[in-house]
Amino acid sequence: MYKDWPQLAKELSPTMAEGRKSLPDAWGAFANLAKAATAPSALDTKTKELIALAIGIAVRCDGCLAFHAKAVAQHGGTRAEVLDTIAMAIYMGGGPSAIYGAQALEAFDQFAAR
């Protein structure tokens, strides 16, 4: 199964923008939470994005894979780090995580190639 993950992220962005516009208080609070959660502290931002990618795999969220694979690539993540992340997600999420892990790697490879 091949998905164009950069295109998926691009297609979801207007929908996300509409959500921000339609729910400014709730969406704004979520945006502030995301900013605070991903800010470097005991863990750097890249590590936090790898964790988010693992969670996206485990909960089987295509949009999560697109946005967090992109963020991992933007923060200098490596393919080896993504593979370790996928291994942990498979360990925690079983067979469904194996399927989404393969898709997460495909998404990362597409963003890293850009």
Describe the structure.
The structure is a single chain. By secondary structure, this protein is mostly helical. It has a single domain, classed as AhpD-like (Up-down Bundle), CATH 1.20.1290. The chain is built from five helices and no strands. It is globular and about 35 Å long. The two termini are 20 Å apart.
Key terms:
114 residues, mainly alpha, single chain
Q: How many beta-strand runs?
A: 0
Bin the helical content. over 70%
Shape descriptor: globular
Order of helices and strands: HHHHH
By secondary-structure content and strand pairing, the structural class works out as mainly alpha
Mind telling me which CATH architecture this is?
Up-down Bundle
Q: Report, as a whole number of angstroms, the end-to-end distance.
A: 20 Å
Number of helices: 5
